[in-house]
């Protein structure tokens, strides 16, 4: 399993915490590793963490209104259907397990249990049972490492969270520039046949990763991006191939992913329905794409069926060009490339023949146009 940084490393060493809190922190690190490995023991270990927190800090009833969602939580998408299902469970069976909170001033941020909190809010509960964990020094990184390998974290949320973490870690690098810099360095390493060297660094410790990156002749920005990705246990090539394409999706498709449960593969298939591809206005293209998206979701279409639908829409707007049409386009391009230098270099006989040919063809064109 790739090396995953311990939560303990991310706590401020200047802050004095109790021995019990240290034990909790160590247990949190184990939870992180289990999450990243998608271990079946995860829920059992989460129960152990709650028990530890209860033992040392006690279980509390916290006002629902005093709790805030974690703004740095990578999982920004919780489908409404999932929240409603949780609300029904809470209404029927009550709250079985407490949520885990971290203190922030006089309020609390959710570390684990946002669906339960959302469900409780839907039911207009006044209070919810919770246990309190120590506040880590870097909450965004903590949250990212907690959720980054969850299979239910959609690629859009994951991509945005990773880019945010890179931007937080690499000085003077804007979020918008990160995909471009990453794509550029990966293409260069591929041309230099060094991609395998980069991939081999994923499972190594920080010192070995640092040494390996130094051997790839990278700029400061490139080094910083790759170092952050490797430190998160991610293969930079996989991040580019599977995640960064999510960032360039049209806004309507991003909204469909977040609010309607549209899958990433379906979104990428629908993303080709643009004004440029269909040769229509932006407004018309948006209407076609949004209609197709709604159809894909309501009919629960597969990726293959989605691609078939996209092909039909494209065929509706794009007429297949005949060989004769392509021939005319080729001749037009050739005439456009005919420079004055080439004409000056031609013999009088060649110029005469060309003039006669053009006059003949022009006469035929006029007869069709007039």
TrEMBL record:
GO MF annotation list: DNA binding
Gene3D superfamilies assigned to the protein according to its UniProt record, in alphabetical order: Conserved hypothetical protein from pyrococcus furiosus pfu- 392566-001, ParB domain (3.90.1530.10)
Domain of life (superkingdom): Bacteria
Pfam families cross-referenced by the UniProt entry: ParB_N (PF02195)
Cellular component, GO annotation: chromosome
SMART domains, A to Z: ParB
Stored InterPro entries: Chromosome_partition/occlusion, ParB/RepB/Spo0J, ParB/Sulfiredoxin_sf, ParB_N
GO biological process: chromosome segregation
Domain ParB-like N-terminal: 60-148
NCBIfam families associated with the record: parB_part
UniProt record similarity statement: Belongs to the ParB family.
Protein name per the record: ParB/RepB/Spo0J family partition protein
Originating organism: Romeriopsis navalis LEGE 11480
């Amino acid at each position: 399993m790739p090396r995953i940084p311990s939560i303990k490393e991310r706590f401020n060493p200047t802050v004095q915490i109790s021995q019990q809190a240290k034990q909790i922190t160590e247990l949190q690190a184990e939870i992180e590793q289990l999450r990243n490995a998608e271990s079946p023991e995860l829920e059992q270990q989460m129960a152990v963490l709650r028990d530890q927190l209860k033992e040392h800090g006690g279980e509390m009833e916290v006002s629902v209104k005093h709790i805030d969602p974690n703004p740095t939580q990578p999982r920004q998408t919780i489908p409404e259907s999932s929240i409603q299902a949780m609300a029904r469970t809470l209404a029927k069976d009550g709250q079985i397990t407490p949520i885990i909170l971290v203190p922030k001033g006089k309020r609390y941020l959710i570390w684990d249990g946002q669906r339960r909190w959302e469900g409780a809010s839907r039911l207009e509960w006044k209070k919810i049972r919770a246990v309190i964990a120590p506040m880590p020094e870097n909450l965004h990184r903590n949250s990212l490492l907690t959720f980054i390998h969850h299979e239910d974290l959609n690629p859009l949320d994951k991509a945005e969270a990773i880019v945010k973490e890179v931007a937080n870690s690499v000085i003077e690098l804007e979020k918008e520039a990160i995909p471009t810099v990453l794509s550029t360095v990966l293409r260069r390493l591929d041309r230099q046949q060094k991609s395998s060297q980069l991939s081999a660094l994923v499972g190594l410790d920080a010192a070995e990763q640092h040494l390996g990156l130094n051997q790839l002749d990278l700029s400061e920005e490139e080094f910083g991006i790759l170092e952050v990705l490797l430190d998160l246990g991610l293969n930079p090539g996989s991040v580019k191939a599977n995640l960064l394409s999510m960032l360039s999706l049209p806004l309507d498709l991003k909204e469909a992913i977040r609010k309607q449960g549209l899958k990433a593969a379906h979104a990428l298939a629908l993303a080709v329905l643009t004004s440029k591809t269909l040769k229509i206005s932006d407004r018309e293209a948006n209407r076609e794409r949004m209609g197709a998206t709604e159809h894909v979701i309501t009919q629960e279409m597969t990726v293959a069926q989605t691609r078939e639908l996209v092909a039909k829409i494209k065929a509706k707007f794009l007429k297949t060009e005949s060989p004769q049409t392509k021939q005319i386009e080729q001749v037009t391009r050739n005439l456009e490339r005919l420079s004055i230098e080439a004409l000056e270099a031609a013999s009088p006989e060649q110029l005469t023949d060309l003039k006669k040919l053009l006059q003949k063809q022009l006469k035929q064109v006029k007869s069709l146009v007039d």
